[in-house]
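Backbone-to-sequence.
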């Protein structure tokens, strides 16, 4: 595989050319980068093609990135392959030190990283700051895990034999990430890969490449050697196909929709790649009569409206027991009426734009379908926002299993409330989905807490909490929500292969 002759190549990222643009909002304008990064060079596409990146709040262009394709992806894979032997040979403590330096640079530059994120993704600036801390947490966590990669010495059946098991990095990894968490979804995959001794090729969402490019620039500043991290910007079909077709790529980690996850799985079959897939969800949020109402309201607000409802773990279906239903709905509607909607850079805004006009249309379709089938809008907001880009947060009562909000992931600020009478009914309804990512439930009963938790068919359950996202705990789903676990004490295993060494003591 030979490297392409990129249209532009430089050892350091060129500063933005857009006067008055995003770079001018940054303390360090050098973090606004409009190039891919392959083998330590900041490059354009071989044919000079670019893609526009737009502000979801206004539709205005922020800048461009190279429209990389097969040639650039193959060059990135070759660079990662060339860098692998030296990277895996470095003592784990050295890899850990480099990750810790990267973590420190992320925290030092958190305000700029958050501004880049709000500009391209739309989430409120305070939430973007939260994501930077969350994302950096994976780097610090896996720096620690790098130092703890261990092995086994197994009891042998005879005295003249020893059996050792050691863990080795799997090799070059493809990292394909979504637009909803443009920072944390990258660090959650790249940090364990690097800690394990793997090298990576990242394909960030074409909608949010600047967060990814700034992260990679900070990794370079931290001293992570050239070729260990490569990033190709552009559209998914060509880049994804080159990554899945390559026999050099030994592992693929993807966060995104179940449909694309299934496609990547099919494409990876020919080369038998290891896969980590974090896919769609349809999270139930169950409130029992004996729940602490204040805590349940705080939990559902945090879960449902984080990132304007654009998370795969956000409450999608809210089941409320009959005895507490009316009080819960009244409190939830009041809280939702208090959410400020607008541009994520405006102080106090809690709900930003959705990622695209197509996303707005889909969410609007879910609301219209529910209303047509008998749901009631109890929030009654009339916001002065661009209806092509924003969706006002809404609470719908009278939701039923026949509605799209019950069957599909809405990915927007819509809170459909389903009334139920008893525990078995709630658990059966919660589990009535092909997805199995996250579930939440609120109860004051310890025995119900364990009983229901054991029956919920999801990879993560939150009892009396609306949050399951932490670097210290395994994150991932069952059924059509994916394969593997990210974060936590087992997250690094996804990037390690076991090698068993049988030793005969004959010499
Ligand atoms: C996701 O929506 O894909 C991830 C959300 C999280 O990490 O909390």
């Amino acid at each position: 595989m030979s490297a392409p002759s990129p249209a532009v190549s430089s050892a350091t990222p060129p500063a933005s050319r857009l006067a008055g643009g995003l770079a001018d909002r940054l303390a360090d304008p050098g973090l606004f980068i409009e190039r891919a990064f392959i083998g330590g060079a900041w490059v354009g596409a071989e044919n000079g093609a670019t893609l526009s990146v737009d502000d979801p709040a206004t539709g205005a262009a922020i800048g461009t990135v190279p429209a990389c394709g097969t040639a650039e992806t193959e060059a990135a894979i070759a660079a990662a392959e060339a860098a692998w032997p030296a990277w895996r040979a470095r003592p784990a403590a050295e890899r850990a030190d480099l990750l810790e330096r990267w973590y420190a640079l992320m925290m030092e530059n958190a305000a700029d990283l958050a501004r880049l994120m709000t500009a391209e993704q739309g989430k409120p600036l305070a939430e973007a700051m939260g994501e930077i801390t969350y994302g950096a947490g994976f780097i610090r966590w896996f720096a620690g895990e790098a130092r703890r990669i261990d092995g086994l010495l197994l009891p042998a059946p005879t005295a003249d034999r020893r059996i050792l098991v050691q863990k080795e990095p799997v090799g070059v990894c493809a990292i394909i990430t979504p637009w909803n968490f443009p920072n944390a979804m990258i660090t959650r995959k790249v940090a364990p890969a690097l800690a394990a001794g793997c090298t990576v090729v990242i394909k960030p969402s074409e909608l949010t490449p600047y967060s990814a490019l700034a992260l990679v620039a900070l990794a370079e500043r931290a001293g992570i050697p050239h070729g260990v991290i490569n990033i190709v910007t552009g559209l998914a079909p060509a880049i994804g196909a080159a990554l899945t077709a390559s026999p050099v790529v030994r592992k693929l980690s993807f966060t995104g929709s179940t449909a694309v996850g299934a496609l990547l799985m099919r494409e990876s079959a020919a080369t038998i790649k290891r896969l980590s897939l974090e896919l769609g969800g349809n999270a139930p949020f169950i409130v029992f009569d004996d729940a602490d109402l204040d805590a349940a309201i705080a939990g559902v607000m945090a879960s449902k409206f984080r990132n304007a409802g654009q998370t795969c773990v956000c409450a999608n279906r809210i089941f409320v027991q009959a005895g507490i239903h009316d009080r819960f709905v009244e409190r939830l509607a009041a809280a939702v009426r208090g959410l400020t909607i607008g541009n994520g850079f405006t102080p106090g805004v809690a709900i930003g734009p959705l990622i695209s006009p197509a996303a707005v249309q889909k969410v609007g379709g879910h609301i219209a379908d529910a209303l047509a089938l008998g749901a009631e809008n109890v929030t009654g907001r009339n916001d002065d926002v661009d209806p092509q880009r924003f969706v006002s947060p809404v609470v719908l009562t009278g939701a039923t299993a026949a509605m799209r909000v019950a069957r599909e992931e809405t990915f927007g600020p819509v809170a459909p409330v389903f009334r139920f009478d008893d525990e078995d009914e709630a658990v059966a309804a919660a589990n009535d989905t092909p997805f199995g990512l996250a579930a939440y439930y609120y109860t004051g009963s310890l025995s119900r807490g364990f009983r229901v938790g054991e029956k919920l068919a999801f990879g993560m359950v939150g009892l009396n909490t609306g949050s399951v996202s932490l670097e210290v705990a395994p994150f991932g789903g069952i059924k059509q929500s994916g394969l593997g676990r990210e974060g936590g004490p087992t997250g690094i295993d996804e990037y390690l292969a076991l090698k068993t060494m049988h030793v005969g003591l004959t010499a």
